[in-house]
């Protein structure tokens, strides 16, 4: 147990704060490099890179959302891609309606695919999406409402563990099949694409790209702060209690299903926001985003980074996606095997992910330093092993509000029970 | 649901004719038990007698097939779930120690602190000085002051038992159901636990299930013997120890 390291490391969430600082810096530097420098300059960032990095930010936000429900509350959702995709579709519907007469069929009201299907009227559920504010509300409400309905039924009937994972997977799969149908009115196979502008700004313009990037960075920072507030509150400790011992939590008097429902809905909304920021950057949303594999990938990101830490999820999303970008360039057909292998390796050897590994390494370095320092070393190292809590014990009578602060231990042991 | 004809005045817990079967096997067979406020009761009986199942039925984990379970004379416990029953004032300690391993000792107690069970209340909860003081008191009572910042998972078996008892106390229940508290405790810890329960019995009702006869003796309270899902004998420890049937099925073995 390397608790002391992790505790001091996380007590004030230094890593998280550093991460927030990096995100803010990126939100300024990336647009700067993209807009101020000219192609050919050392610091120039092309739109390709801006968009790619922006995508990673959206994935990271999805990973934070997954970590909130899985890492803290033990709800292994294999359907979070559905909430991401729904947020994306809500944004896509707004962008479609912005096209207006500039579409191939130049219909002022109907998107091209509807004209193509010989529809003459805009379906009721497309109403209002010409308004940005309404569309943004739907980005939150649609995933939130689905999560509420699904969670209400599943948690009230106490569906947990593998069964819950399977039905979340079924949920996203069913949505994928539904969205593939042309008569659903979401563009079928092709989805929604050919977007022109957002709030009047041309989506091809590098300034718009840079702004979307910065917004994604801020959204990720905001999502991180929100989740950190949640997990550091007493509610966060109830979530950990539910994860570790659901029945104990009930017998203390907490209505477990309500707590699960709350985090599930918050998490779905965050995933929706991630999807909404993703779509204008990649320029398309289609039913493929509901593919079960996408949801599973997001679980792998969190597992690789280290669950129950929030920032681990972000690192995981970035590492795996950088890997994926490189891998799919070099050996496209091997990517899925690699992803599967990565998950197996993480589960077997890195139950706490990369974040856990770094803590493990610094502990090893410390005990090595101790053994190198003097001849009584073995005894000393042993003492560290045997009595892992001396720092804790000496921390006498913390202030009440101090106690209400971060509860960092879960990093150390939380990941152990899948 | 058939309402009982008359529940005696001043009963805290009224269990009557409760039957619970698992695949035809009657774990509880027309069990009856009455607890008065401020009473302490020890329950003994061989393995599989139905002691834990009885607690499961009272705390809403299991629904009885038949029978009446009433709390404070007019609350039908079979109509409530675990969380509601906990909030009605019934606390439970499990046979296998069950604390939240990835939270500290202090946080475990904070979680059990009575009140503030809602989602948004929890989100905005701030520990008052008064509550902080209360947690300190209980930490002292369960002798874990030095270990307040330890993860509960790193405590010894006996310390976990105590932490769980501490969590029970934090809930401020009227009735405590305690399943095998002395298991895994040293003799000294066992003696201290018996002292603690006697102290608690001054303003709580306690049902204590235990196999350790020295412990039961130290509790110095009425004893109920369960066997095959129903009450075999009741009385003081001396009385039941002399009961021929009890000796046959339990003590004599
Ligand atoms: N969920 C269940 N499904 C099937 N059988 C069960 C279940 N729970 C308990 N039983 C059975 O009911 C009987 C009573 O069990 P219970 O746990 O109440 O006994 P106990 O008196 O607490 O015993 P011990 O002293 O060993 O703790 C046992 O035979 C047990 O196998
Ligand atoms: Mg038992």
Question: How would you explain this protein's 3D organization?
Answer:
The complex is a heterodimer of chains A (418) and B (253). Mean pLDDT of chain A is 86; it is low at 1-9 and 373-418. Chain A has helices spanning 3-10, 14-35, 47-72, 80-99, 112-116, 132-156, 161-180, 206-232, 234-244, 246-252, 256-282, 292-305, 311-330, 335-349, 353-373, 377-386, 390-393, 400-403, 410-413; strands at 192-193, 197-198, 201-202, 284-285. Chain A has 418 residues and is mostly helical. Chain A has a domain at 65-205 and 223-335. Chain A is built from 19 helices and four strands. Chain A is globular. In chain A, 45% of the residues are buried. Chain A starts with a helix and ends in a 5-residue tail after the last helix. In chain A, the strands form two sheets. Chain A has a two-stranded antiparallel ribbon. Chain A has a two-stranded antiparallel sheet with strand order 2-3. In chain A, strand 2 (197-198) and strand 3 (201-202) form a beta hairpin. Chain B has 253 residues and is an alpha/beta fold. Helix content of chain B is 36%, strand content 23%. Chain B has helices at residues 51-58, 82-88, 105-112, 119-123, 129-141, 157-170, 187-200, 213-219, 237-242, 244-251, and strands spanning 13-22, 25-35, 40-44, 66-71, 75-76, 90-93, 175-179, 205-209, 223-227, 230-235. Magnesium ion binds at residues 51-52, 95, 179 of chain B. The site of magnesium ion has 4 residues of chain B, from helix 1.
Quick structural overview:
The complex is a heterodimer of chains A (418) and B (253). Chain A has 418 residues and is an all-alpha fold.
């Amino acid at each position: 147990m390397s608790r002391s390291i992790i505790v001091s490391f996380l007590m004030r969430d230094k890593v998280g704060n550093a991460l927030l600082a990096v995100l803010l810096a990126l939100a300024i530097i990336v647009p700067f490099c993209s807009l101020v420098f000219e192609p050919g300059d050392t610091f120039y960032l092309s739109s390709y890179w801006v968009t790619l990095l922006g995508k990673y930010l959206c994935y990271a936000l999805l990973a934070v959302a997954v970590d909130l429900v899985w890492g803290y509350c033990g709800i292994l959702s294999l359907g979070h891609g559905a909430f991401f995709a729904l947020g994306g579709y809500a944004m896509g519907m707004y962008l479609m309606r912005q096209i207006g007469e500039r579409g191939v069929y130049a219909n002022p009201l109907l998107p091209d695919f509807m004209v193509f299907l010989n529809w003459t009227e805009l379906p009721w559920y497309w109403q209002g999406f010409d308004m940005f504010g309404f569309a943004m509300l739907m980005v939150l409400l649609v995933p939130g409402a689905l999560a509420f309905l699904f969670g209400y039924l599943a948690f009230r009937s106490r569906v947990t563990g593998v069964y819950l994972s399977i039905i979340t997977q079924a949920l996203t799969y069913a949505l994928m099949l539904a969205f593939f149908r042309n008569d659903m009115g979401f563009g079928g196979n092709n989805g929604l694409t050919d977007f022109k502008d957002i709030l009047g700004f041309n989506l091809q313009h590098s300034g718009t790209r840079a702004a979307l990037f910065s917004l994604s960075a801020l959204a990720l920072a905001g999502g991180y702060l929100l989740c950190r507030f949640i997990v550091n509150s007493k509610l966060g400790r109830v979530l950990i209690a539910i994860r570790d011992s659901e029945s104990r939590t009930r017998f203390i008097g907490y209505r477990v299903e309500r707590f699960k429902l709350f985090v599930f809905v918050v998490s779905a909304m965050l995933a929706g926001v991630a999807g909404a920021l993703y779509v204008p950057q990649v320029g398309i949303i289609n039913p493929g985003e509901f593919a079960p594999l996408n949801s599973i990938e997001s679980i792998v990101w969190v597992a690789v980074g280290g669950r129950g830490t929030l920032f681990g999820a972000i690192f995981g999303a970035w590492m795996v996606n950088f890997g994926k970008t490189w891998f799919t360039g070099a050996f496209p057909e091997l990517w899925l095997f690699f992803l599967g292998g990565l998950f197996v390796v993480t589960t077997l050897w890195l139950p706490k992910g990369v974040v856990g590994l770094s803590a493990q390494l610094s502990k090893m370095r410390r005990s090595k330093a101790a053994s190198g320092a003097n001849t009584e070393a073995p005894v000393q190292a042993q003492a560290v092993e045997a009595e892992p809590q001396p720092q804790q014990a000496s921390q006498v009578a913390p202030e009440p509000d101090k106690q209400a602060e971060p509860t960092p231990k879960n990093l150390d042991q939380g990941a152990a029970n899948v | 649901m058939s309402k009982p004809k008359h529940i005696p005045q001043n009963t805290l817990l009224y269990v009557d004719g409760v039957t619970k079967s698992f695949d035809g096997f009657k774990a509880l067979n027309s069990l009856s038990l009455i607890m008065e406020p401020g009473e302490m009761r020890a329950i003994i009986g061989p393995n599989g007698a139905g002691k834990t199942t009885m607690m499961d039925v009272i705390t809403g984990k299991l629904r009885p097939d038949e029978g009446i379970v009433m709390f404070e004379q007019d609350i039908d416990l079979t109509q409530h779930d675990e969380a509601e029953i906990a909030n009605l004032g019934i606390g439970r300690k499990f046979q296998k120690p069950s604390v939240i391993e990835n939270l500290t000792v202090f946080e475990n107690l904070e979680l059990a602190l009575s009140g503030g069970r809602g989602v948004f209340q929890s989100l905005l909860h701030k520990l008052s000085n008064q509550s902080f003081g209360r947690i300190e008191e209980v930490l002292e009572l369960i002798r874990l002051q030095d270990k307040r910042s330890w993860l509960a998972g790193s405590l010894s078996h006996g310390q976990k038992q105590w932490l769980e008892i501490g969590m029970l106390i934090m809930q401020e229940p009227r009735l405590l159901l305690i399943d095998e508290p002395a298991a895994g405790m040293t003799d000294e810890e066992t003696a201290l636990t018996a002292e603690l329960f006697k102290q608690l019995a001054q303003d709580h009702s306690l049902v204590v299930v235990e196999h350790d006869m020295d412990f039961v003796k130290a509790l110095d309270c009425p004893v109920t013997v369960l066997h095959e899902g129903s009450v075999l004998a009741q009385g003081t420890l001396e009385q039941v120890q002399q009961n021929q049937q009890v000796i046959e099925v339990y003590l004599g073995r």
